[in-house]
Amino acid sequence: MLQVAFGQSKYYSDNLSQNVRRGIRQKLRRGEYPGHAPIGYINNLKTRNIEPDDIKSKIIKKAFEEFSQGRHTLESLKKRLCFWGVVSRNGTMLSKSSVKKILTNPVYIGIISRSGEFYNGSFAQIVSKATFEAVQEVLDERSRPRKSKVSHNFPFTGLLRCGGCGASITAQFAKGNGGIYRYYRCTKKLGKCHQPYIREDLLTGQLKNKLQKVALCEDLKEKMLFQISTWEKENRRSSHAFSQNLSNKITETEEKLDKLVNFFLDDLMDKDTYINKKNQLIKTKADLIQKKKGFGKKTDNWIEPLREWVNDAYHAEELASSKDLSAIKSFVGKIGTNRRLLDKKVLLQWENPWGLLAERDESSDWLPQGVKFRTNF
Fold this sequence. Notes:
By secondary structure, the protein is an alpha+beta fold. The protein is built from twelve helices and ten strands.
């Protein structure tokens, strides 16, 4: 009897396991994600699928974009994600392996990977395919072994050029005052150059001063974000009115087409006149429809870049007191061009619109107003 009972239990267990696997295969064929939603998505119990999280999906998209631009290592990206509020389930900072798993997970471009097999997902993708592939290229390039046996950490190499001869700026270790310091100097590969060395801590201080010039305090950030939200509401109202006007014109054109057809069918119009007028109305209708489609894509194309710029400027405030030299280098590279080191001084030309912040009048209550602020973006 005991053997029979064990046999029945094993039969039930095997059947249950097989049914579960069959159910998972069916979900995958339908493009439904099986299991707990990855970071950036949430499980929808009604559809039994996943959908993008309103906040974390934007964070994941931003993380992919910044990493694809070479602005982060896995170490700095996990700190950035923690700063944005993306942490593990127990509330701790994500590990580098977890961050890499996110960056290599094709679910973010709408593809489910299961046991080495790919399935097309029926949920919205968060990241574009071009950005995802760019991230894979960055990861692949960084995974290749370096030719140099000794790796030195010189975070500001590649950022500046010599202001005297135009050659690249390199770095080296040097002893002095009882310690070992990192110095930056001209490579002198373009000929003789008499530009002096500069210690890394002094260079860091100058770069932080540049960040401070374009940094926004929290109070000013909130004022600007509030103004942007106001513009966004006004833009939506005007967009709705414009879209409604186009819809009305399309309806009027369709009515004219109907009347034209009736006139022709009632022998009130000759065929040549009918064809000419019909072609004109059809062309007018097609132009209106195309204009409506194009307008829908362009209405908010300045809102998000402007909001992102304000948040970046607020992030500069944090970096100005940070010890993350790689992040400082990346940010300085974004806000300025023609970056030079001349007589131990950092010189650059401000990228638009960062010059607005760098050249603002600190003695006044500076907040760009209305269209003047908007037209710079």
